[in-house]
Every structure is written in structure tokens, then in C-alpha cells.
């Protein structure tokens, strides 16, 4: 759980009882509307936000156990932010930005660190001419490649990516997306991708979790979730996503959800989606559905699934 008290005496329940497992080498997508708690969950996994309740386990070791050894934790988990220009120091050259985590962790002499920086540039397909430049001298795509290279400098096992493509031009997104897919396979990384674009998630993710108002309502293999969504909210998300096929787009009927999402400071009783669900039943208004398995790999929080 991740709750935020406000000055008005109310509590915003950004993440409210989430059970999420990410396997080694898995490309896990987390999707949902703005304000559903995706970023708060991602920041908590990365240790940037303390959980109000519950625990985060990395290889069976609780996140709180790492508090006294923050440097060791950062070698396992790295975070890639939405805006690379904001996450990179504007006063450091690319060489300095990439070498800084190696120096902080005491990895090798200067000559070894330079070799590692050269390897990182090759990993993200950047020329060595970038090393002497400041971030403002690079394009948006190049800056995001630098941010990815910096995150990989310590050979992490988990990458948490919070909307890493949203600040980029459409023409650059495919290149960065392919880079993530290549790195995940080459380095056997576990990647958690926060995204709004369902087409991107469908293309690269092996497993997907859908969040609504601080809770995960459905999770499962990407091909199953997109082919046969079980939760009404998942179906609504997929119905609202435009198709790249003009014929399908012309004949598509979009069923818009009624109303706005409730406030995370005052979630409704029972199922949190019942105020907008077209299939709502009396039990949905009084009893909160638990996340339960439907088959071997898909779990859904819905009384009607």
C-alpha cells in the first residue's frame, strides 16, 4: 500500500492492496488511466517511495533490509524516467553522466571505467562523439539512450521504466522500443514498463497488469489478455484503443465508459469499478472482489469473470 496524507486531513490511496510478481527475464507492462497508481507503484518497487504497508521483495529480501545498503540495492534495480532531459544533469557531459555511477560504486580505475562507458555506448547504439556533449546538444532519442545506458552501467537485474517513450517523437519511439526489446533478451533483464499506449505494451511485453484506482484488476500473459480480456475495465481499455487498420477503425464501435474515475481519497465500496461498469450487479456494490486465478496464468478481480 502507498497512501499519501493531505493537508485537508484526507488520505489519498494511490496504491491500495496490490499483489504483483515479476519473474526474472520478464517484460511486464502496467497499464491503466492516469491517476490509477501506476507511477506510485513503480517508484515503490524501485525504492524511491516508501510503502505505507506491505512489503517489496527482491529475491526474497525485503526492501527495508536494503535501507542500510542503498548502494547495493541500486545495483539490482534502476529507474528510467519519463523525461531524459530532466533526469540527466545539464552541467555534466555524457562521459561524466555515464561514469558517475561507476565512480560512486568504486568500480575499477579510470581506464576501466572508460572502457565500460564505451561498452555502454555500443549497447544503446550511440557514437563516441556524444561523450563530450551536454544533454541539450543531443536529440530527445539520443538523450533517452543515454539515460538507458546510465541505468545499465551497474548491470542491474530489474529496470523500472515510467512512460519512457511519451516525451519522444513518434518516429523515435519505435527505435527506443526495439532497443528495450533487444536489451531485455541480450541481458536477461526484468523490465517493468509503465505505459498508456496499449499498442506498445502488446508489441513488447510478455505479461501485463491492468490497474484501476490503486488496485490490479487483471493480470496475465499479454497474448491472453489482449485476445480474451476478462475484466470489464480491461475490455473498455482495449475497445477505446484505436486500430492501425483503417478498415477495422471505420467499422469499430467504441463503447465509452460513463462518468469519471472516483477519487482515490474516497473509493467506492465493493468493486471500485462498479460506478462505471456496464455489467454491474448488486454484489459488485457491496463486496470487493479478490484477485483470483481464471485458468493457470490469468488472474482477475471481478465477481462476473
Summary keywords:
single chain; 305 residues; alpha/beta; Rossmann fold; 2 domains; eight-stranded mixed β-sheet; 12 helices; 35% helix; cell membrane; ATP hydrolysis activity; ABC_transporter-like_CS
What would you say this structure looks like, in words?
The chain is α/β, with parallel strands linked by helices and 305 residues long. It has two domains: 2-76 and 157-300, P-loop containing nucleotide triphosphate hydrolases (Rossmann fold); 88-155, no CATH class. Helix content is 35%, strand content 17%. The chain is built from twelve helices and twelve strands. It has helices at residues 38-45, 70-74, 84-87, 94-104, 110-123, 140-152, 170-187, 198-204, 222-227, 232-240, 246-251, 282-286, and strands at residues 2-5, 11-15, 27-31, 57-58, 61-62, 77-80, 158-162, 190-194, 207-212, 215-221, 292-294, 298-300. The strands form three sheets. An eight-stranded mixed beta sheet has the order 6-7-8-3-9-10-12-11, with helices on both faces. Strands 1-2 form a two-stranded antiparallel sheet. Helix 5 crosses helix 6 (140-152) and helix 6 (140-152) runs parallel beside helix 7. It is globular and about 70 Å long. It starts with a strand and ends in a 5-residue tail after the last strand.
Amino acid at each position: 500500500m502507498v497512501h499519501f496524507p493531505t493537508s485537508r486531513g484526507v488520505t489519498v490511496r494511490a496504491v491500495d492492496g496490490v499483489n504483483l510478481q515479476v519473474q526474472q527475464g520478464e517484460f511486464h507492462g502496467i497499464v491503466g488511466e492516469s491517476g490509477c497508481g501506476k507511477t506510485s507503484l513503480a517508484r515503490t518497487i524501485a525504492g524511491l517511495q516508501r510503502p505505507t504497508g506491505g512489503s517489496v521483495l527482491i529475491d526474497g529480501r525485503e526492501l527495508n533490509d536494503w535501507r542500510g545498503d542503498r548502494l547495493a540495492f541500486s545495483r539490482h534495480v534502476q529507474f528510467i524516467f519519463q523525461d531524459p532531459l530532466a533526469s540527466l544533469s545539464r552541467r555534466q557531459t555524457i562521459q561524466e553522466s555515464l561514469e558517475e555511477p561507476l565512480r560512486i560504486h568504486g568500480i575499477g580505475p579510470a581506464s576501466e571505467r572508460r572502457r565500460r562507458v564505451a561498452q555502454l555506448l555500443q549497447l544503446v547504439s550511440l557514437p563516441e562523439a556524444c561523450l563530450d556533449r551536454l544533454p541539450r546538444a543531443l536529440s530527445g532519442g539520443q538523450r533517452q539512450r543515454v539515460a538507458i545506458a546510465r541505468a545499465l552501467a551497474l548491470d542491474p537485474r530489474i529496470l523500472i521504466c515510467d512512460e519512457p517513450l511519451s516525451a519522444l517523437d513518434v518516429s523515435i519511439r519505435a527505435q527506443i522500443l526495439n532497443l528495450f526489446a533487444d536489451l531485455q533478451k541480450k541481458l536477461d533483464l526484468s523490465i517493468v514498463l509503465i505505459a498508456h499506449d496499449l499498442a506498445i505494451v502488446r508489441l513488447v511485453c510478455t505479461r501485463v497488469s491492468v490497474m484501476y484506482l490503486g488496485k490490479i484488476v487483471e493480470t496475465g500473459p499479454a497474448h491472453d489478455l489482449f485476445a480474451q480480456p476478462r475484466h470489464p475495465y480491461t475490455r473498455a481499455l482495449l475497445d477505446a484503443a484505436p486500430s492501425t487498420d483503417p478498415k477495422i477503425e471505420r467499422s469499430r464501435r467504441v463503447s465509452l465508459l460513463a462518468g469519471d474515475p472516483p477519487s482515490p481519497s474516497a473509493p467506492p465500496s465493493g468493486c471500485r469499478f462498479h460506478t462505471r461498469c456496464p455489467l454491474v450487479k448488486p454484489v459488485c456494490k457491496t463486496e470487493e472482489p479478490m484477485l483470483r486465478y481464471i485458468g493457470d496464468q490469468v488472474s482477475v478481480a471481478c465477481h462476473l469473470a
